[in-house]
Amino acid sequence: MQRQTNEPPTVERYAAFTDHGRGGNPAGVVLDSRSLSDAQMLEIARNVGYSETAFLSPTNTPGAYDVRYFSPLAEVAFCGHATVAAGVALADAGVAGDLVFGTVGGPVAVTPASVDGEHAATLTSVPTRTRPASGRQLATALRAMRWSAADHDPRYPAHVGYAGNDHLLLAVASRQLLAELDYDYPQLQALMSAEGWTTVHAFWAETPTLFHARDPFPPGGVVEDPATGAAAAAFGGYLRSLELLPVPSRVTILQGHDMGAPSRLLVDLDPEVTTVRVTGTAKPIS
Length: 286
Description:
Elements: E1 12-16, E2 25-30, H1 38-48, E3 52-58, E4 64-70, E5 75-76, H2 80-92, E6 99-103, E7 106-115, E8 118-124, E9 129-132, H3 135-144, E10 159-162, E11 166-171, H4 175-179, H5 185-195, E12 197-207, E13 210-217, E14 222-225, H6 229-241, E15 249-255, E16 263-269, E17 277-284
Parallel strand pairs: 2-3, 4-6, 11-12, 13-15
Antiparallel strand pairs: 1-2, 1-17, 3-4, 4-5, 6-7, 7-8, 8-17, 9-10, 10-11, 12-13, 13-14, 15-16, 16-17
C-alpha cells in the first residue's frame, strides 16, 4: 500500500557486503518512495548520512521496482551496495523471488542468495564496458592519490570501467601502498567531477582472483566507500575484457579493511555475456 504523503518515510538501514557478519557498507533503503519528490529524497539521503540511500517505487509488475539512488550530495545513477541492501531488505519484508530494479543506468536483476548461512543478494549488472585511461588522466590521478608512476602496477592497465556509471580502475604495486592511502581530496574531487567518475577503484592483486581495494568517493561527499558493488561489477568486466583471467571465474574483492569496515564482494564472470554478477551478504543495522 502506498503511504500517505503526510507520513514520514521509513528508512531501513542495512550494512551490505559484510565480511562474515562484520563491517560492510551502510545503506539506507526506502521501500516505497512513490510520494517523494527529488528534493525530499535528497534531503532524506543527506539526513541518513550514508554514502547512498536507495529509494524504491513498486510498479504494477510483481517483483519489479523503479529505483533511484542518492548520496548526501546528489543523485547517483547506480549503486551496488544499496542494491544488495535493498534486495535483502525486501526479502526480510516478505517479498519472495527474483527482482528487477529499473535504475537510471538500466535494468538490474536482483536474486536472493545465501552465503555461509547469511542473507545475501546477487545483482546482475547492466552490460559492462571499459576503455583505456589517457596518459593525462593516469598522471593526474596518480598525483591526486599522492603516488608516483612507479607505484602503478603495469600488469593491470589503467582503465575507465562502466557498469551503470564510470570508475577509474587503478592498480597499485603493493599492499602497503593501498594501506597507507592518503589522497588529496580537493584535487581528486576536481578531477573526478571533470571526468564524470563515480569512484576511483584502487586495487592490489594478491592473486589473479583475489584483490584488495579502496574506493575514494568525493563526488558523493564521502572520503572513502567501504564496499562498492558498482565498481566491483565494472572491475569484473575489465578483467574479462582484457583477458586477465580465465572465464568462467569467481573473483573476491576485499575492501574496507583499512578503514575498519571489512567487506567482501564476490564477482562472477561468465563467458559470452557482457554482464557481471556481484554477490554480497547484508544485515540490518540496529
